[in-house]
Amino acid sequence: MNYAMIKRSLLILLALVLALYANSTFYCEAREPKRIALTFDDGPHYKYTEQILDILKKYDVRATFFTVGTNVHRFPELIQRELSEGHEVANHTYSHRHMAELSEDEFRQEIEAWEEVIYKEHGYSSELFRPPEGILTDSERQTVEAMGYNVILWTIDTRDWAHNKVERIVDSVLKEARDGSVVLFHDFVSGESPTPEALEIIIPKLREIGYEFVTVSELN
Ligand SMILES: [Zn+2]
Question: Catalytic site residue 41?
């Protein structure tokens, strides 16, 4: 074995060690992905829910829809699609009234009327509740928890309902994303929604940096 051969063998060995090291780093990351839950409030909506479902399907992502009872009643086929495509459907009250203005009885009715409509039309129930605007008094929280619900808020607010710009939504989600984040979007927005366009950018980017998309129940 001459000097050139030894040098070549050493280089091959070095390349093999580097390849093994790179592979093991990748393997560790792939084994423990960071998890994130995308959530969509206020739907279903005749236009945006369908668009959002198409995007989620295209990227094989499952999400959680905090639905409003009146819309559940109006768009049963969209609820059916959400359920059949593996998404989680959760309680966001029957008519999205301000919780602070309700008596305790009215508050209960808002939750129970949602349960009735979704059970009657889809045989489905949920243990997740998100109050309109994320606002809940301590006694309302106790009431809803006694009814068997987990109260779910969010860690990242995209402000898509206020027609936040697509770039700003993308920036804030990518900057604030952590393992265990819950991202607040809306699939019912009055006027033009930036949400579908933002999702087309956010989903592949989050996946590229190691995120796995889960439903809220899978996260908890
Ligand atoms: Zn809402």
Answer: yes
